[in-house]
Amino acid sequence: MFTEKNFRQILVLAFAVIFSFQAAACSKPVTGTASSPRTAKASGNVEEDILYYVNKFRKSKGLAALAMNEVLNVEARGHSKSMANGRTAFGHDGFESRIDDISKKLGRVSAAAENVAYGNLDAEAVVNGWIKSPGHRKNMLGNFNMIGIGTAKGKGNIIYFTQIFINKPVVAKK
């Protein structure tokens, strides 16, 4: 008989197996410096601006916009802070735990992926870097409906960026 703890362990293992490809595909850093000025559409808030540029890219490919979700933002910000202060190495360490925490708060998640980057970048530059990287691009164009975005400054004012993508099935109301 399965207990709730066993179910969670199986769920985490399933996420690890299913989504290891996305994590592995995104393990190369997107780095650099800001290369272009902000456009009039940018808000001045880096996280909101990243959402704008990601959704602009998705729209150009005929895909629906992603909805920003605060539960995902908290997880993304926490990971960016951990990388920025050196508590965790740059990369996807703890991805399965982040998705498990999200699932506990939001319910069933059918797909998840993560992009990370660091550098002295503005929102448009980091999104353009992800677009040019096949693994990151695949995640941004994936079958997801929600996104969380988090940034944190590290030593030398280097910014660490995290995007978490999920597909949260929409439950039809009766």
From TrEMBL:
Pfam family, one: CAP
Xref: InterPro entries: CAP_dom, CAP_sf
Alphabetized UniProt keyword annotations: Signal
SUPFAM superfamilies with a match to the protein in the record: PR-1-like
Signal sequence region: 1-25
CDD domains: CAP_bacterial
Top-level taxonomic group: Bacteria
Domain SCP: 51-165
Gene3D superfamilies: CAP
PANTHER family per UniProt: SCP DOMAIN-CONTAINING PROTEIN (PTHR31157)
Name assigned to this protein: SCP domain-containing protein
